[in-house]
Amino acid sequence: MTAQKLNLENSFKLYDEAQKLIPGGMAGIRRPYNFVPGEYPIFFEEAKGGKVKDADGNWYIDMLCAYGPIIIGHREKEIDKAVIEQINKKGFCMSLVQPVQNILAKKITEIIPCAEKVVFVKTGSDATTLATRIARGFAGKNKILRCGYHGWHDWCVEVKGGIPKKLYEDVFEFHYNDIDGLEKLAREHKDDLAAIIITPVGHPLAHPVEMPKKRYLETVKEIAKKYNAVLIFDEIRTGFRFSIGGAQKYFGVTPDLACFGKAMANGYEISMVCGKNEIMDVVTPPNKVFVSSTYFPNSTAMVAALKTIEIMERDNILDEVRRKGEIFSSKVEKYINKRGLPVQFSGRPLMPYITFNKDDKDMYKKYRTEFYTQLIRRGVFLQPYHHGYVCYRHKDKEIKHAADMVIESLEEVFK
């Protein structure tokens, strides 16, 4: 079935204006080249539940969920009300911390296996950078072995422009599910190895999502212990999604430190590093490791996180998210397998991702562009180079419709 090109006139006008005011119009991964230029909206106007509306009035089933923070839904009344009450009745930005800090920290230590102490920050990059700093301060060593995307700070960003080599020369990358590669690196740098940081689920950009092979995470932990390195789980994406206690609880492997963000406050800006007392205490004065920010103690996001956790536990949110993810995944995966297409479906059921098998003629790039063109025209918002997400407010009929539109779009590509 032919799908018409969307009217995106206002998005394009806003983008032209933005480029005169902001380098690139907006930051990083939200720029048009990360989607299908000319086909995807560039500005969203509003969101509600499991849907978003662009600046031209087109509505979409939102299966990117703001790149992961939206775990319950957009504009959750209970959460927003709690935040507004905090602003109106108590305020949120002060010279000293507010008691809600302790309440949230106590809750975190109750639900996350590795959490004995907690430091709250704002972004995923804040958290992963602080975690490596804490690990180095504790271990008194310098080398970091990393696996996954850990943010935009100097030590880990993929694009190296503007960054002196000396700021990342002690950081070495290994591949997910490759124990031999990790063991080799750890052995090579054993005398100065401070930490191993890994995303417990593999999600490399533009590649299928990988689940850990049998005993993979356990073996990573054993290697860290063998070489006296701090094991850090980067749970910015998996935390509060695979389990309220993170992927560490879901897979039954407890790291020394962990980083959480995104879904922990349903869109409000907060992240954290949590972990074992003896390691976290290097931040305690007189401290080996310093951390401070004007905005880290702001209470609005802490209130949002507490309310998000309360709702998730009360309403069994993650059971429903997983159920809805299975509805979408089973339908799409069954179709792909039946048709025998050069397509891979990964991340089932929480991080669904549709990728195209590489070939010598680079046809997969054309398939990818055409597929995501057809999909956005059919009102489903996913990203060509990044896995998707499912949220609680996605209605069953929306999830089923999104799966149907994926199938219809694939039919159009391969007809």
Overview of this protein structure:
This protein is of the alpha/beta class and 415 residues long. It folds into 2 domains: 9-74 and 317-414, Aspartate Aminotransferase, domain 1; 77-314, Aspartate Aminotransferase, domain 2, CATH 3.40.640. Helices cover 38% and strands 14% of the residues. The protein has helices spanning 9-21, 77-89, 100-111, 124-139, 179-188, 216-226, 247-251, 277-280, 299-314, 317-339, 363-377, 396-414; strands at residues 44-48, 51-54, 59-62, 117-121, 143-147, 171-173, 193-198, 230-235, 257-260, 271-275, 343-346, 353-356, 380-381. The strands form 3 sheets. A 7-stranded mixed sheet has the order 4-10-9-8-7-5-6, sandwiched between helices. It has a 4-stranded mixed sheet with strand order 1-2-3-13. A hairpin with a 2-residue loop joins strand 1 and strand 2. The relative contact order is 0.16.
